[in-house]
Structures are given as C-alpha cells and as structure tokens.
Design brief:
It is built from 15 helices and 22 strands. It is α/β, with parallel strands linked by helices. α1 packs across α7, α2 runs antiparallel to α4 and α3 packs across α4. The mean pLDDT is about 100. The structure holds NADPH dihydro-nicotinamide-adenine-dinucleotide phosphate (NDP).
Length: about 475
C-alpha cells in the first residue's frame, strides 16, 4: 500500500484536501527530515466529517451486527495483507524499531478490529425479573456520532483500539490521530475504502489537536469522546464536554512503579525490567519509570541492570538489531533532556546514559537518546513525580512493603504497576493496595483484550477493553414490561 507524500482527510468515503489548503510538515524522527505533508484541518473539515457521520448513522446502526462484523474483518485482513507497508509507515512516523512495528503495533491493530468485530456478535444485555409483576430488560443502542482522539506513541494500535468498539457497536466516528504520527491512520482510510466500508461510517480528520481535535470535542452532534493522551489535554477535554453532559472516556498519563522484592525470579525480572523500562524508547504509558528494589537485592540489581542496558543497540530504527530507535520529535527530545538536567539538579546520579547519541550517515540528524538510569533521588522529587515519557528510569531501594507502597502511591497518577515476588500472599496484598487500574505480577504488558484497561486518579476516567468499551459506546435503556 502506497504512502503518499501528501496525506488527505477521509470524509464520506473520499480522500480529500483540507478546506484551508494548508499543510503541516511531517518529520521522520529517524532522519530529522520532512518526508510528507499533513492536512492542517479546521472546524470546517470537522463539520463536513460530522455531517457525513450523521448521514451514515441510520443505515450503519440498523444494518445488523453480521454486516458490521464482515466489513470490519475485511479491514483487518487488508491491514494484515499490507503488514510490511504499515510497519514501515509506523517506523518512519515514530522512529520506533521496525521489529516493534512488525510484531506489536500493526498485529495488535488488526487484532483490535477482529476482537471487536467478533465481540459484538456475543454482546448481550441484562434482564431483571420481578416475580409475578414485570420483566425488565436493558436495551443497548449505539450513541450516534462519536469522537476518537489518540496520541503518537502507539499510533495505529491506539487509534484502532477506540475506533473498533465504536464501529462494532453501531456508531459513526469522527477520528483524529496525532498530527505527529498520522501516516498509518491515512493508510487505514485507504484500507476502509478497499474493504467497502460505507461512506461516512468512519471519517478521519488530520491536523492540530487544539484546532481540529478541539472542534471534534466541541461539536454538539458529537455525543461521546474517547480520548487517549496527556493528563493536561484530558483535563481540557473534560472541561469542554462537561457542560454538554457528553460521555467521555479518558486514558491519560502515568508514572508507573516497578516494585522488585528480593525473592523474585531474578532472570525473568531482569529481562522484563529492561523491556518495561525502555521499550519504544520508554514512550509507552505503561512503562515502569520508577523502579523500587528491596534493599538486600539493590546492589546486585543495579550492577546487572546497568551492565545489560549498556549493551542495548541505539540507532537506525529500520535495522532488526536495534533495541532503541529515535524519540518521536525534536521537541520531545529536548523535554526529556531537560528532565535529565533536573534530575542532576535534584541530586540524582546518572549511572548510565543521559546523553544524545550521535548516529553517523543518513541518520545523523535523527533524535536519538541513550537509555538513562538515575539513582540517589527520593520518591517525592519532581523527577519522580512528573511523567517524562522517554528512556529514563530512576532506581531506589526500600526496606518494607508498607514503605514501598507509600512510595508507589505517592504520585498524582494511577495507571499501572508491576510487582516482582514469589510470595503469592504478598503479591495479593500489594495488588489490593496499589492505587492503579492495572497490576502485573511477575510480568509486564501481558494483555488480554477482554480485561478492563485504564487508570485511577489523574491517569483517567472510565475503562477501555472488552465489554467495558462496548458499554461505553452504547446507551442503556431499561424497558419494563408488566406481566
Ligand atoms: P496529547 O495530550 O498532547 O495529545 C493526544 C491527542 O490529543 C493528539 O491527537 C492531540 O493532537 C490531541 N489534542 C491536543 N489538544 C487537544 C484539544 N484541546 N482538544 C482535542 N484534542 C487535542 O498527548 P501526546 O500525543 O503527547 O501523547 C502522550 C501522552 O499520552 C502521555 O501523557 C501518555 O502517558 C499518554 N498515553 C496514555 C495512554 C493510556 O492508555 N492511558 C496510552 C498512551 C499514551 P496533536 O498531537 O495532533 O496536536
């Protein structure tokens, strides 16, 4: 599948230029060069998209689940058929290693579509019998036109994670990918055309969040908004939607603790911790950026962790051998570096990393950073409280379970946590007391798409995944029949 140099919006089944006629430069993080142009859409494009979705809604919502299932499965098949093209596009847009795009991002995207296409065939609602009086049943109808807005770190993976349940449930969608990484969403629009998705069922508008994104959120016909991104943007969306009582699902930032007890399976923990710290250059909302290690394991852990991280290969993201590619943008690189400076000011010692990586030749202007390990900071400092969202972790020792729970729960965030221990009772106690939406015990990023996904505290509102997502994208109505 061809990725064009000029991306177009996907509205009412057609690929079209933005009404303004203006475009935004799209950079490849691997080379630092502009490689394509993104529509700089505004509220006029959003209005066209919303109207298209409104027009398509009566037919799509009433066509029956089998028809929706069939067309969504076709879209999934096309993504799988062009997996390599999608993977190349994802790596070019994000700078992530091609192995990640090939084995995680793109496969998960077609799985999302298949998962919700089949889930809708099994989706059932509740019934409540009142003996000799009445029968109640819950009718679940699609909401109408809904908005889906996603971030740049897992572009197609998170975009389809929202769009798939919305479409399966019978809604029509106006969606916006991050303007930093729009290419696979553009390829998705081509896949939808090839699959025969009826016009207007899915509309993709490209452009800036504060312009195109906000126009989607604010449009009165958009009845629900599913958003993944930063906590500050989530707060803005909550403020904009509250007066209109729109349904919102917010998946926001994290500062996840990785708690390692001395009785863990050391080898499994170590291999996984290298990954949970630096996969996708640390730009996964679920990465464990604060590592707490029980005191009598601390030195052994630190030395082995540094030794392994030193061996990681950084650079050309198109090489199968690369562990860390480029971070997503020049601005993001500067932000991460400023946090490393802050960590030093706060008394942290850089055990490894902290520097820009100079990659020779074609990639010399790309945005490459060393994986960075910092020790000597307390849990309350800014470095340990704010989301960095890059290849930077801090390591800290602890003595007791109570102490590490207080450290782990000390931030405004509550997305996920990882716990390493062979003691099942302790694992259970920790799982109960950690203030997060997702706990992994002796593993990380093991995902079953049926489970509720999301965070507590300032990491979000509501849950995605499985029935939770289908419930979000439907309106329940109780019907009471007197008998
Ligand atoms: P942002 O919040 O900056 O942006 C997310 C999306 O919202 C983008 O498409 C952006 O558009 C758009 N946007 C920005 N402003 C508005 C607005 N006023 N109205 C509507 N839409 C808007 O997040 P990032 O893209 O920087 O992503 C990183 C963040 O996402 C991190 O905090 C990370 O933790 C979080 N995240 C959370 C996950 C979770 O499941 N909890 C998963 C993955 C990431 P544009 O970029 O085009 O301007």
């Amino acid at each position: 599948m061809k990725f064009d140099q000029q991306i177009r919006n996907y509205i009412y089944g057609e690929l079209e230029a933005p009404i303004s006629g203006t475009y935004i430069d799209n950079y490849s993080p691997a080379t630092g060069e502009v490689y394509s142009k993104i529509p700089d859409s505004d509220e006029r494009d959003v209005l066209r998209a919303v109207k298209a979705a409104e027009r398509a809604f009566p037919v799509w919502s009433n066509c029956g689940v089998k028809k929706r299932f069939r067309v969504m499965m076709r879209i999934a098949d096309i993504i799988e058929q062009y997996l390599e093209d999608f993977a190349q596009a994802e790596t070019t847009d994000t700078g992530k290693p091609i192995t990640l795009s090939r084995t995680i991002d793109i496969p998960r995207s077609h799985s999302n579509l298949r998962f919700f296409a089949t889930a809708i065939l099994h989706f059932a609602s509740e019934a409540h019998h009142m003996e000799r009086q009445a029968i109640n049943y819950t009718m679940r109808r699609p909401i109408g036109v809904v908005g889906c807005i996603s971030p740049w770190n897992l572009p197609l993976y998170l975009f389809t994670w929202k769009i798939a349940p919305a479409l399966a449930a019978g809604n029509c969608v106006v969606a916006k990918p991050s303007e930093i990484t729009p290419m696979t969403a553009y390829l998705l629009s081509k896949a939808c055309i090839e699959a025969g998705l009826p016009a207007g069922v899915l509309n993709i508008v490209h452009g800036y969040g504060q312009k195109a994104g906000q126009a989607i959120v604010e449009h009165p016909l958009v009845k629900a908004v599913s958003f993944t991104g930063g906590t500050a943007t989530g707060k803005r969306i909550a403020t904009l939607t509250a007066p209109h009582f729109k349904k919102v699902s917010l998946e926001l930032g994290g500062k996840n603790p990785n708690v390692i007890f001395a009785d863990c399976d050391f080898e499994k923990m170590m291999t996984t911790t290298v990954r949970s710290s630096f996969a996708n250059q640390g730009q996964i909302c679920l990465c464990g950026s604060r590592i707490f290690v029980e005191k009598h394991l601390y030195e052994l852990f630190r030395d082995e962790f540094v030794k392994r991280v030193k061996k990681m290969v950084i650079g050309n993201p198109y090489s199968d051998k690369t562990d860390l590619g480029a971070v997503v943008s020049k601005e993001h690189k500067e932000k991460i570096l400023s946090y490393i400076e802050l960590a030093k000011e706060e008394g942290g010692e850089i055990l490894y990393g902290g520097e820009v990586v100079e990659v020779a030749g074609k990639y010399e202007n790309g945005y490459y950073l060393q994986p960075t390990i910092i020790e000597g900071l307390n849990h309350q400092c800014k470095t340990n409280q704010e989301e960095i969202f890059g290849p930077v972790v801090t390591i800290m020792p602890f003595d007791t379970e109570e102490e590490v729970l207080a450290y782990a729960n000390s931030t405004q965030y509550g997305l996920s946590a990882t716990v390493w221990t062979q003691n099942i009772s302790r694992a259970q106690r920790m799982a109960e007391k950690l203030e997060v939406g997702i706990v992994w015990i002796n593993t990380w990023l093991t995902r079953d798409l049926r489970t509720p996904f999301g965070g507590m505290k300032n990491s979000g509102l509501g849950r995605e995944g499985g029935w939770e997502a289908l419930r979000f994208f439907t309106e329940p109505k109780n019907v009471c029949i007197h008998v």
